[in-house]
Each structure stands twice: as structure tokens, then as C-alpha cells.
Amino acid sequence: MTANEAELVETPADAITGHSTGADWLARYSSSLMGVFGTPQRVLVRGAGSLVWDADGKEYLDLLGGIAVNALGHAHPFVTSVISSQLATLGHVSNFFTSPTQIALAEKLLAITKAPAGSKVFFANSGTEANEAAFKLARRNGGGPAGSESVKRTKIIALEGAFHGRTMGALALTAKEAYRAPFEPLPGGVVHIPFGDVEALRAAVDDTTAAVFLEPIQGEAGVRPLSAEYLQAAREATTQAGALLILDEVQTGIGRTGKWLASEDAGIVPDAVTLAKGLGGGFPVGAIITFGEATSALLTAGQHGTTFGGNPVATAAALATLHAIESQGVLANVLAVGAHLRDGLAAVDAVTEVRGEGLLIGFDLDADVAPAMVTAALDAGFIINSPGPRTIRLAPPLILTTEQADRFLAALPEIIKTAKDAQ
Ligand SMILES: *Cc1c(COP(=O)(O)O)cnc(C)c1O
């Protein structure tokens, strides 16, 4: 063992993977992993709460939480113990069978979203899969005469700036040309209308519309919120036209905004909500909730399925996550620390705008320095993200403390200065 090796962080898989420095791992990465993500920023080996450590032993405050996934931070003791004991008891059964955690999680999701009678849940493994189920639901809202297979509702509406995932159906809903163009033709009938424009929405929704897909806050587009008035107008227009209103809360749901759903305050009942990211507290799990009997009945036996979706371990992880959020006052923490962070950010000279709710925060800079800030922040021991050239996104663990938020706020001016000097 070299002297350097002795300092490396130890992990349970070391016996299988061996020990290496970050630089060695990245060299091995580039010759073995597909290049779709570019070069990873760091090789991470261990986490605890809102902190993570890289292969060289450097510590970071994680203000991105695996992109809004690690709701309770890393290695949360309760979530970890529930996942471990479930795996040691019954790990997978297929959907020829069910298990108590699957049923209890479905019931819990219906309860926290105040879903009306007849509402139902389908479990998937990711956000894009939850949206694929939603896309199929929309197609089943065909609007042809009763008992006929004819479909007159061929149009699906999504917004400019929308991100709904990378599989073909979800990609058709996603707006970004660079993501779409290499894979055309995509499933047809999707139109993208201007963001947040009620008149454009009213003009687009008609009796050929199967569904409208909205993110209450567009995360990938830089944390852009839709107003409650917009969501209410969307509910009204879709109800009038017989179209479904489908809310993609993959990023905004499960406490991220200090509420179970970001759309809660708008006071509307959507036809479906998709969830993933934070739902499993770091374990892969996605879900679609269909609201009311009629919408729930659109997908019938045999029309959709999954091998892994809803398995005992994933649903135990989500149940444990929801339980911990509820029993440890996490939603109140999200509201308090989120407000504190936004106030602090707004007071920074180079920051021109602060957006978002709870602990989903976007802020703009007075120059195109966001990517350079990500690098400077890493060097200073903070993980942040730049969804745009002058936009930073924060989506930290929902258990982030005020003290940790203050540590970032104190370091931010120097991070901005370093990024500007590097330009
Ligand atoms: C991340 C995200 C998705 C895709 O989720 P994956 O788990 O990456 O497939 C879909 N919609 C929204 C709003 C997202 O933020």
C-alpha cells in the first residue's frame, strides 16, 4: 500500500472494486462508461447527511442532493435500516404478486395528496417511466365514440422549457431541441406552447386535446415557477375540453417545496401526478397517481406493466422516507431553511434574481459564470449545479441546516469572484 492509498476513504465494496485515487478512477471511467454524461466532476465514495466525500478524501456540502433525490441526505439511519431489513427479508416478487409495503405506500401517497375516491397508483422505477405511464394514459383519453377504437384526441400539450425525461414518449414531451433532434421521429401529436402564457394555453386546448403536461416549477429550465393562476386556468381549460391535466412533480414533489406537492396551493385536483426523484430518499422509485375513478380506469388490465416497479425494497424505501419526513418535522425545516437561503442569496451583489420554493432554488448571476462557479464551488467544498449559463440551481437534502446554508452563503462571494477571474 502506498502512503497515498492509506489516506483513501474505505467503503464496503472495496474488497470487490479495490482502492484507487480519483484520477485513476476517472481514467478507468472514460475507457469503460458510455460518454453520454461527459467527464464526471468527482468520484464520490461516501456520504452522511448533507455531506459527501470523494475518492481522495475531500469533503463537500451537497447542495444538489443527487439532483433533488437525496431528500433525507446520504445514509439516513432510518431509511437505511428499513431498506436493509426489507432486502434481508424479501427483495423482489414480480407483479404476479404484491407485498405489504407496495400496498401501504400506495395508500400513503393517496392520503398525502388528498386524492378523491377512486384514485389509484402505479409504481415505476424513475421519472421518465412515470411519465411514460402518463403518456399512455393520455393516449387512452382518445375521445372517440363509446365502444369504438377511433381516436379524435391526438394532441398533447406541453410547455416550452419542459423537461419530462429521456425515453421516447417522455422525450416527445421534453422541449429541448438538442435532446430531441437526434432521435426523431418521436411519438407524434405533442405541441409545445409558450411558458406561463394563459392566453396561449386557452387557444391551444380544444376538443382534439388528450392532455396537458405541466411542471409546477420547471426544474431543468432553471427553476421557473408557474403561477397558481396559470395552474387554475389549465384546470379550467382542460376540464372544459375533456382533456387530462397531468402534473409532472418528479422534481417538485415529496416535500421539495415544503409541501407534499408543489401544486397544493393552487387548490386544484389534477387528473394525474407523476413522482420520482425524492420519493425513495435515494432509492430508485417512481409513481403515477391517477385522480378519480374515470381517469384511473383509462389504463386497464394488460395495457401497462413493469418488472421491477413497486418492488418490496423500493416501496419500503419510499415508505421510510415519507415516515421520516413526517415524523422529523422535515417540511417545516424546508420552509425555514429555504426562506433563509433565498433571503441570503438575494443579498449577494452579483445575484440578479432568486426563484423557487422551499429547497428548490434557482438564482441568476450578472454574467455568464454559472458553469465556472460549479467548478469553483467544488474546489471550495460545495456541490451546486448550473442549468443555464448564468443560472445556478440548488436542490439540497431537505434536512439541510441553517448553519450549513450559512456556510454556503458565506463562501458564495468568493466562489463568484473565482469564477469571474477564471473567465
Ligand atoms: C428528472 C426529471 C424527470 C426524469 O426523471 P428520471 O428519473 O431522470 O427519468 C422527469 N420530469 C422532471 C420534472 C424531472 O425533473
Automatic annotation (TrEMBL):
<keyword id="KW-0028">Amino-acid biosynthesis</keyword>
<dbReference type="Pfam" id="PF00202">
    <property type="entry name" value="Aminotran_3"/>
</dbReference>
<feature type="modified residue" description="N6-(pyridoxal phosphate)lysine">
    <location>
        <position position="277"/>
    </location>
</feature>
<dbReference type="InterPro" id="IPR015421">
    <property type="entry name" value="PyrdxlP-dep_Trfase_major"/>
</dbReference>
<feature type="binding site">
    <location>
        <begin position="248"/>
        <end position="251"/>
    </location>
    <ligand>
        <name>pyridoxal 5'-phosphate</name>
    </ligand>
</feature>
<feature type="binding site">
    <location>
        <position position="307"/>
    </location>
    <ligand>
        <name>pyridoxal 5'-phosphate</name>
    </ligand>
</feature>
<dbReference type="GO" id="GO:0005737">
    <property type="term" value="C:cytoplasm"/>
</dbReference>
<feature type="binding site">
    <location>
        <position position="306"/>
    </location>
    <ligand>
        <name>N(2)-acetyl-L-ornithine</name>
    </ligand>
</feature>
<dbReference type="GO" id="GO:0030170">
    <property type="term" value="F:pyridoxal phosphate binding"/>
</dbReference>
<dbReference type="InterPro" id="IPR005814">
    <property type="entry name" value="Aminotrans_3"/>
</dbReference>
<keyword id="KW-0963">Cytoplasm</keyword>
<keyword id="KW-0663">Pyridoxal phosphate</keyword>
<keyword id="KW-0055">Arginine biosynthesis</keyword>
<dbReference type="InterPro" id="IPR004636">
    <property type="entry name" value="AcOrn/SuccOrn_fam"/>
</dbReference>
<dbReference type="InterPro" id="IPR050103">
    <property type="entry name" value="Class-III_PLP-dep_AT"/>
</dbReference>
<comment type="subunit">
    <text>Homodimer.</text>
</comment>
<dbReference type="GO" id="GO:0003992">
    <property type="term" value="F:N2-acetyl-L-ornithine:2-oxoglutarate 5-aminotransferase activity"/>
</dbReference>
<dbReference type="InterPro" id="IPR015424">
    <property type="entry name" value="PyrdxlP-dep_Trfase"/>
</dbReference>
<dbReference type="GO" id="GO:0006526">
    <property type="term" value="P:L-arginine biosynthetic process"/>
</dbReference>
<protein>
    <recommendedName>
        <fullName>Acetylornithine aminotransferase</fullName>
        <ecNumber>2.6.1.11</ecNumber>
    </recommendedName>
</protein>
<comment type="similarity">
    <text>Belongs to the class-III pyridoxal-phosphate-dependent aminotransferase family. ArgD subfamily.</text>
</comment>
<keyword id="KW-0032">Aminotransferase</keyword>
<dbReference type="InterPro" id="IPR015422">
    <property type="entry name" value="PyrdxlP-dep_Trfase_small"/>
</dbReference>
<dbReference type="InterPro" id="IPR049704">
    <property type="entry name" value="Aminotrans_3_PPA_site"/>
</dbReference>
<comment type="pathway">
    <text>Amino-acid biosynthesis; L-arginine biosynthesis; N(2)-acetyl-L-ornithine from L-glutamate: step 4/4.</text>
</comment>
<dbReference type="GO" id="GO:0042802">
    <property type="term" value="F:identical protein binding"/>
</dbReference>
<feature type="binding site">
    <location>
        <begin position="127"/>
        <end position="128"/>
    </location>
    <ligand>
        <name>pyridoxal 5'-phosphate</name>
    </ligand>
</feature>
<keyword id="KW-0808">Transferase</keyword>
<feature type="binding site">
    <location>
        <position position="163"/>
    </location>
    <ligand>
        <name>pyridoxal 5'-phosphate</name>
    </ligand>
</feature>
<feature type="binding site">
    <location>
        <position position="166"/>
    </location>
    <ligand>
        <name>N(2)-acetyl-L-ornithine</name>
    </ligand>
</feature>
